[in-house]
Input
Amino acid sequence: MQNKALIKEIFSSLQGEGPYIGYNQLFIRFAKCNLKCEYCDTDFLSDLKEYSCEELTAEINKYNNFHSVSLTGGEPLLFTDFLLEFLPQIKHKIYLETNATLFENLKKIIEYVDIISADIKLHSSSQNGDLFRVHDKFFEIAKNCGKEIFAKVVFDDNISDDEIDKICSLAEKYNLPIVLQPKMESRHATISSNEINDILNKFLNRYYNVRVIAQMHKYLNIR
Ligand code: SF4
Output
């Protein structure tokens, strides 16, 4: 059977999150996810299309002037069989946006990935339970392969001291930059600037490499 991937959309836009904010990227948004975050804004039910490897390669060859190809979702690592066939054909930098839980799948394709934006999912904001053990395995694999990786943490005022402690321990263990991303509703953070500052200071009391970066694309009203 031909290897195919279910894709929600392909588009060129500015990266709106994390340290690569503002770079023009070609986004491939994969459908399906293994988690169910309370704040998820991706519609996985409509406008989906299956692509073969050849079809997707032809599609991305229509674009130019981008910094990297962002594999986003959904969860791109649900499609590792497809990616194993697709990624060796792509000459551009590969930027993987992942929920950092499918560590066995990461192992299969990591050699083709250049930059990893890895979420640390908090129960307090995403309602997925405690995922720190799987995140630990994920970061271990990524660091052992020498890949550029940073941890992105969507948070709100429910973040607990225990969660802050566990995030900082993971970051120390793997020398990870941490990007704190306030949970947004439309163009507004769900948390006040004073609360953001207090939470940032709790992190900085434990670990040095922490920044707050909001979702720029929501302010600019772009995809
Ligand atoms: S990991 Fe991302 S795509 Fe999956 S449910 Fe959470 S926010 Fe949505």
Observations:
- The mean pLDDT is 95.
